[in-house]
Write a structure and sequence with these properties.
Blueprint: H1 7-23, E1 29-33, H2 39-47, E2 52-57, H3 62-71, E3 77-82, E4 97-101, H4 109-122, E5 128-133, H5 144-155, H6 164-171, E6 176-184, E7 188-195
Parallel strand pairs: 1-2, 1-4, 2-3, 4-5
Antiparallel strand pairs: 5-7, 6-7
Helix pairs in contact: 1-2
Length: about 200
């Protein structure tokens, strides 16, 4: 099959990798929530060889992810689990890291809240959650383009861009604390959370 392709993935994967090299330096096993096309997984796994990288997504996306893995295999890149927040139980394997890119604003509010809670409840002490995408700060959009994007998301039935303070309110009561925030290209951010 022809592989699914996202130009945005191609554009942002190097800046994301630059952050993950530090954020996941002491991490050994990562669950990627919402692997999408699979592009991030094959690129990041190849460039972070100390990690076991477990892809996951809704079953409809598995053929595309597998097509990327078939073409660009890595020894510790694992084929996708079926995992949909709000439908499936947390995977049984042990992970000391979680990564997700461009999922939080697609999810409905209750799904985004549940994802934060699941990550907080299942990461071990010292575990790391890296969350990439557009986020609002103190109730404000970080750019006019993000405001337009948010309106587009909501018109398509998505939950929309979440505010960082909202994410913190869901996570920090469960011991998952925002430790660093990285400003990345195209008005996106990477949030580095750590489990106490």
């Amino acid at each position: 099959m022809s592989k699914p392709f996202s130009q945005a993935c191609e554009n942002n994967q190097q800046p994301i990798l630059d952050v993950l090299k530090t954020a996941f330096a002491d991490t050994r096993s990562v669950l990627e929530i919402g692997s999408g096309t699979g592009q991030h997984a094959v690129f990041l796994a190849a460039n972070l060889p100390h990690l076991r990288w477990q892809t996951s997504d809704m079953p409809v996306h598995h053929p595309g992810i597998n097509a990327w893995i078939d073409e660009f295999p890595s020894p510790d890149l694992i084929r996708p689990l079926s995992f949909t927040v709000g439908e499936d139980c947390w995977p049984e394997s042990k992970f000391d890291g979680v990564f997700t890119a461009n999922t939080t604003h697609i999810m409905q509010v209750d799904e985004a809240r549940l994802m934060m809670q699941l990550v907080a409840d299942n990461l071990p002490s010292g575990g790391v959650f890296c969350q990439y995408g557009p986020f609002n700060i103190n109730g404000q959009y970080t750019s006019d383009s993000n405001q337009a994007f948010d309106q587009s998301l909501k018109s398509r039935g998505c939950g929309g861009i979440r505010d960082i303070s909202e994410l913190r309110s869901w996570a920090e009561g469960r011991g998952l604390v925002l430790s660093r925030r990285y400003q990345l290209p195209a008005n996106n951010q990477l949030l580095e959370w750590r489990k106490r």
